[in-house]
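Lab notebook: predicted structure, single chain.

Context: the supervisor wants predicted structures on file for every construct in the current expression panel, including those that have not yet been purified. This is the next one on the list. No modifications to the sequence; it matches the entry in the shared construct table.
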Amino acid sequence: MKLKVGIQIDNMTTPKYYLEILQLIIKNQSKFYPPIILNQQVSHSKNSILKNFVNRSLLFLINKIESFKINDKHYADLENVDSSLKVINIVPIISKSGYIYRYDEKTLNKIHDEKFDLVLRFGSGILKGKILNLFKFGFISIHHGDNREYRGTPAGFWEVFNASHSTGFIIQKLNEELDGGDILFRGNIATARSWIQNRERITIKSMAFLWKLICDLQQNQYLPDAEKNFLYDKKLFQSPSNKNLLAYMYKIYTPILLEKIQLYLGIIQPRKWSVSFIKNTNSSLALNKAQTIKNPYNRFLADPFVITVNGETICFVEDYCLSKNKGRISAIKLLDNHNQFLDVVIEEDFHLSFPYIFEHKKNIYMIPESAQNQDIRLYKCTNFPYSWQLEKVLIKDIRAADTTVFRKDKKWYMLTNIDSSSLNDRSSELHLFYSDMLISDDWQPCSSNPVIFDSSKARNAGLFFVKNKIFRANQVQGAGHYGKSIEVNEITDVSMELYREKLQYSIEPKFFSNIDSAHHIHMNNEYIVIDHS
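Prediction complete. Output recorded below exactly as produced.
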């Protein structure tokens, strides 16, 4: 059944991301009736502009400084989209505070006559009154901020200002409580180093999932179950004052400028990862006693996995060549007090990393990350540990990072990191696939994907087995800090419909004095391997 969608905006010049949703609705004529624009015709008064001249000047300056890396214009003119697009001009009754919007009976009747199934709120104002109950599926809105921590405005600013590890968004069905509607979906991505970049990233990500929700609604004809209500006990954030903006510029720009100067002068070097190993004594981790494998010249090692075959333990690593800007897979033999670099064992024309290795039916397999080639591929060892052949492309046309597989209850499961948007962010979504067989191209996605949507939990950092239990390690991303630390979780429940895990312990990069990052760990009965920077 087709959906009739209304789109509420302030005026015909609107952020480009809203235009993209509008164009998708127009393009999918078999699923949606032509959308109708509800134009509130809201603009700032000249008195308000003059009153806030300094504040607006600072905001303008920040936008100019931070937007140089963003090629596309932030705003688009809807009047140039489709001449046949129906536009209904509506005028809200705005409270003295300028925040609360209501509509008179004449306007409400005009909107009601259109018989919308839902309306997307892309305009401003805290909506109150009958308009919230006019539509079959309600008023759907995006709040750019994790409403458990940040309510208010502006999108993406306070998370950067406060150095929060993640920035969230919610998709909600509006009610009369500010940012307290029925929460239909939420997600969190790593906070960027600057406000404008952070705002752009969270907007791109959220729009992908808004579109998914609309499509699912059209197909299923019902909204997803809302989250349970909770008590919000934190302050309501408001637009930054002049003092806040000046403090922001000092806090954010000073370290970035110093870093660039130090890099230019060679005082500091671009981040390089290293791999360390230690015998597994099945007791508490003593990573400070681990031995570090020396990085080859002009290369660095990362993403270690270990396997013991015929009494020999081999560590497979991403072997990244700085001059070629590309990774390949190398093998290193681990011994009690030293290591022996063996050889590069898998190299392709594209980047490889994360050499997830496992044994099945007396064969040894590997699934290295091949996101650059847009596939997930399975290699089989023909002469351990040196020779490998491509056994099967498990999934094609997919940009997936750090894939792992395991067998449980006669079913194969795959955990991998995918970006559902165009952001090229594979650190915030964990996706689950399943198959009856390992060597198959019929891997099906879990209906609840992404099973984790949180940059502090989603990115795979290893998978291993201890006493018949399955443990998934995850990276914890910081604010502008990839691979800040590691968490280890026991997988407690997995099926075709759901995934659950329970945190067991965390690993902070404190085991060596000269590191501030750790983003991968693996172990077997013989050795524990970890990378750090």
